[in-house]
Amino acid sequence: MNKKHKAKKAYIIIAIIIIVTTILIKHNINSNKSKDINYAAKQYLTTGFFNSYKLYNVYYSHLVFSDSNDAILNVRGMQAKAPHATVSYKLKMSKNSSEVWHVNKVDPLSDVQYLEENN
Fold first, then answer.
1. How far apart are CA 106 and CA 92, in angstroms?
2. 8 Cβ partners below 8 Å, 6+ apart?
3. What pLDDT digit, counting tens, does each position of 76-112 carry?
4. Residue 105 and residue 49: Cα distance in Å, rounded?
5. pTM
6. Which of 25, 83, 109, 111 has its CA 20 to 30 A from that of 118?
């Protein structure tokens, strides 16, 4: 009985180590990819359970303004919620000390605003 108990503990510890290592590797890969502003915007808009601005797909992105640490990006895509309308957003993004882009603010754009800002 004692050997079975020790073996069970060893399997649990190994499983925990594998899970934690997998999570750390996935986080590291995502952080490296988020150094690209387009990837960071698409990742923010297409993932997240509680994301009220969630898109099914990003069709088009247009960089309106950018300096070394801040950027404004206009994005257009298909809304994740039915009836899957095409919507546009203005993303205000910033870069942290690790050079990773983060979304600070999302503003919905009407079709007229989107056309005015991208022409």
1. 7
2. none
3. 999 988 888 899 999 999 999 888 999 999 999 887 7
4. 18
5. 0.76
6. 83
